[in-house]
Amino acid sequence: MSGMKDTLGVLLAGGAGERLFPLTRDRAKPAVPFGGNYRIIDITLSNCINSDLRRVYILTQYKALSLNRHIREGWTSAVAQDLGEFIEILPPMQRVSANWYMGTADAVYQNIYSIGSEQPKHVLILSGDHIYKMDYGKMLQHHKDTGADVTLATLAIDPSESSSFGIVEVSRTGEVIGFQEKPKVTNLRSPLNPNMVDASMGVYLFNTDVLLPALMKDAEDPNSKHDFGHNILPNLLGQYKMHAYNFIDENRQEALYWRDVGTLDAYYDANMDVASVSPTFNLYDINWPMRTRVRQYPPAKFVFGEPGRTGMAINSVICAGCIVSGAVVRNSVFSQDVRVNSYSEIDGVIAFSHVNIGRHCRIRRAIIDRDVHLPEGTVIGYDQNEDRKNYFVTPSGITVVTRDYSLYENPVAPEFMQQG
Description:
The protein is an alpha/beta fold.
């Protein structure tokens, strides 16, 4: 058994996921499907199981029904409950305040009793909406070896990307000596690579006796945003030993893989990568298995083989229960129980479960939400102006089709969708 027995995982899965709208209109961001079979949260939970971290609280908040059901039916059996292991959902219980979670630190603070009752020596704070493979046991070992009170996982990025990240100033000995929150430009450089900058991955390991008092102090500060990156970590700087842990990727590729799939375009690209010939993110690695909730469906089926009406899928991920009937599917990711009917051409499409595409449809560069039925002859992805009349179209031209698309004469995206 690894040394993770004295560590409790706290996975933040309450974000509204506004930049993934309309996919997050009816579901929490961590519950959005990924790679056909999975939900986004499955990636982090698989990291936990593969790291032997077997006590995990999941803090949910917005539109959590499908996420709660997914965890309950797919993950609670992944641990041995009779050994004190658990993967458990904690909705906002308002035990210590009458508010919903007001920030990442407030979410953890509101569950301070649950954390304390487990009496962990260490608490690992995780986010439920990133795609990466990481052995948290290696991070814990580094935390112990350096004698740190707090350890932050960092990722080397190009300085030009610094405006999207919390930037960490790291000394030559690996200690954290400063922070810059999403700076437009930065003169900081990583001690490990003078051409790169160290960015925070949102993975924090605390000694419990440092974390709990810090949360209590922050909760009493009326001017705080109650956020780990903004408040907790900067306030602890200089008072406690804080170390950076350079991300070690278990994905075993040349380039490090860590993605925030927080925008529709980033989400689309990450899924297209999974379907490609040589994906950067490998779902097929038996040394780092990805778990999910398994539903009972029949095998995928491809039927008809006559000229102009051949059922086939190329460079695509097709899940159980799908039927490709005399249609051509390319570069696409289909979740369970998708049906494509004859003479249709599909290219670069992410289809969630229970989608039905009629005959003679031509669809490309689109995300189709669950339970959407597209009538015969539907054309999507060939004329953005036409698509905008009925669907959401992202700045880079990806069309998002939701269940009630036909109700919209001219659907108006929320303001955060209208940039660019």
